[in-house]
Specification:
This protein is of the alpha+beta class and 139 residues long. The chain contains four helices and six strands, in the order ααββββααββ. It has a four-stranded mixed beta sheet with strand order 1-4-3-2, with no helix packed on it. A two-stranded antiparallel sheet has the order 5-6. A hairpin with a 3-residue loop joins strand 3 and strand 4. The longest helix has 12 residues. The protein is elongated and about 55 Å long.
Length: 139
């Protein structure tokens, strides 16, 4: 049986100079006048970006923002290189708070991934999950 592979369409530069990406390379490329010229067609600013299945990578620069204002850079399959003023923590918190259906399914998944069973509390921002069958403490 012959396997067919579909090519992933990605709105990122196809030039072999841009085949490798890292946090350091992103910072260098977006602050260099020479390199940024080749990237301009792929760059957009989106301060309302929400994490989704098209996101390839999220780089956080909140301690040293790019151009003094962009705290995150996202490489997205459909939208290319996105400059965002929100930091990665804000985006993840928004995703957890507004996009996921929080409840027992998420709690069980997190418990399994973290290796916690029954007696542990899981906190997601302002929300805390705990087992009703476990020991509890007054809060």
């Amino acid at each position: 049986m012959r396997k067919e592979y579909t090519e992933i369409s990605v709105k990122l530069p196809s030039n072999e100079n841009f085949n490798t990406w890292s946090k350091e390379l992103v910072k260098a490329r977006l602050t260099s006048a020479v390199t940024i010229e080749g990237l301009i067609p792929f760059i957009q600013e989106n301060n309302l970006y929400q994490l989704n299945e098209n996101m390839l990578v999220l780089y956080d620069f909140h301690e040293n923002p790019i151009s003094g204002k962009y705290e995150s850079v996202i490489l997205d399959k459909k939208d290319g290189i996105i400059l965002c003023r929100k930091n990665s923590r804000q985006m993840v918190n928004h995703f957890l708070k507004h996009r996921l259906i929080l409840g027992a399914v998420l709690q069980k998944k997190l418990q399994k991934e973290l290796g916690f069973y029954y007696r542990h509390t899981i906190s997601l921002g302002e929300i805390a999950y705990f087992s009703l069958r476990a020991h509890n403490a007054a809060m």
